[in-house]
Amino acid sequence: MLNTVKGIVGKKQIGNVFYAVFDKVSKLEVPVIYTSPMYRVNGGGLLALPLYGDVILACHDEISGEYYYHSTIVSTNLEDQILKVPGFASIKNSDKTFDDSGRAVKVKYQNQAGVGLEITRNNRPAPLAPIGSVNLISEKGKKVGLDDSPDVEAVVMQNQHGDGITLKGDADKMFSSRSIKTSTEGPQLYEARGSSMDLHVVDGLDLTIENRSTGVNAQTPSEDYWPNGKQPCRKWGGIYLRSENGDVSIAANADTGDLNEDGRIFITTPKARIQILEDGSITIDSTTSINLRSDGNLNLEGQDVNIKANGSLNMESSSDTSILSSGGGNVNADGSQIHLNSGNSSPVPTLGAHTDNDLNDYSE
Question: Is 169 within the bounds of a domain?
Fold first, then answer.
């Protein structure tokens, strides 16, 4: 015959057997065999042995003398607890286990440190939408959550500091529906070690890569690492595209048949601009200087080649200088005076002072 008895768990435990005191039966600790509503040997199941100080119900087999664990009493009477822990509560409400009326809104499968599964369903009065979520929580506060609450409506993966990934379901005031947000205080690394990495926008809007850093968290390296020896290395605010073993290509392939809508490429700084326009023309504008230099040949070819100087026009060659009109046209030279071999010509300013290869912040 099985009788239900009430007792308090002691400190001793051996495997699935723990010891408890049942005042109505004996003042001595007796072994209690743990039972589970679902368990398979070496196959998993529900295993949560009660701890020292827990108040339990057990079934006493009067024929065999054995005790079988039945359940743990969730007592609100602290005098029933052997352990006197500061701030102890039978059920913590710091995570809003109960609503304002005292009604339980959470189902938990957790240990005493709050680690485990937490299911929330709070049917708020109309017209407020219900709050519902399923969260898997670690002891430090890392969380994987499925949240149907109207202010979240997302799949959320976060560390204990709040960094994480949010996969939106429906839209809210901050994010559009079916979107992904990745936010971290520290650096982010995306690495494909055995294959390619692709970013595609299909039938959507723009693809934007933008660095908005103001340098608040920047650190200035010592002068030994300054790339040009005269200004500090600035490891913030930049955008770098670099290939160690292949090409870097920028292509605007839009061809709509309308020159006003075809692809264009713009390279812009506050004082200069390069444009590759939809009609195929290339424009280079600068408020200061434009320098072209090559250790090999520098060739200019076009239908007409026009060179205009608003100041002086200087041409210099360290070898022969030839002017040829090969199509039989004229060679015209006009001026108030024309000097040939008079020693009055001006040398071309050297480009070295400006273009002696300033390095970027990677010393390249």
Answer: yes
Q: Is residue 175 part of a domain?
A: yes
Digit-coded pLDDT (tens) for 67-91: 999 999 986 555 544 455 555 566 6
CA gap 233, 360 in Å, rounded = 8
Same-domain pairing of 170 and 249: no
231-254 tens-digit pLDDT = 766 777 888 888 989 999 998 888
- Measured distance between the N- and C-terminal CA atoms of the chain, rounded to whole angstroms: 86
Residue 31: CATH number of its domain: 2.40.50.140
> Residue 356: phi, psi to the nearest 5?
-70, 60
Give the number of domains in the chain: 3
DSSP secondary structure of 133-171: EEEEE-TT--EEEEE--TTT-EEEEE-TTS-EEEEESS-
Q: How far, in Å, CA of 337 to CA of 332, rounded?
A: 13
Do 88 and 98 touch, CB atoms closer than 8 A? no
* pLDDT tens-place string over residues 277-295: 877 889 999 998 888 888 8
> What is the span of the domain harbouring residue 73?
2-80
Name the pairing type of β-strands 154-158 and 106-110: unpaired
* Residue 203 CB-density burial (10 A; 0-12 exposed, 13-18 middle, 19+ buried): exposed
Q: Let me know whether 219 and 268 are in one domain.
A: yes
* pLDDT, tens digit (0-9, with 9 covering 90-100), for 143-181: 999 999 888 899 999 999 999 999 999 988 788 899 999
Q: Residue 190 falls within a domain, yes or no?
A: no
Q: Are 27 and 89 in contact (CB under 8 A)?
A: no
Residue 349 in domain: no
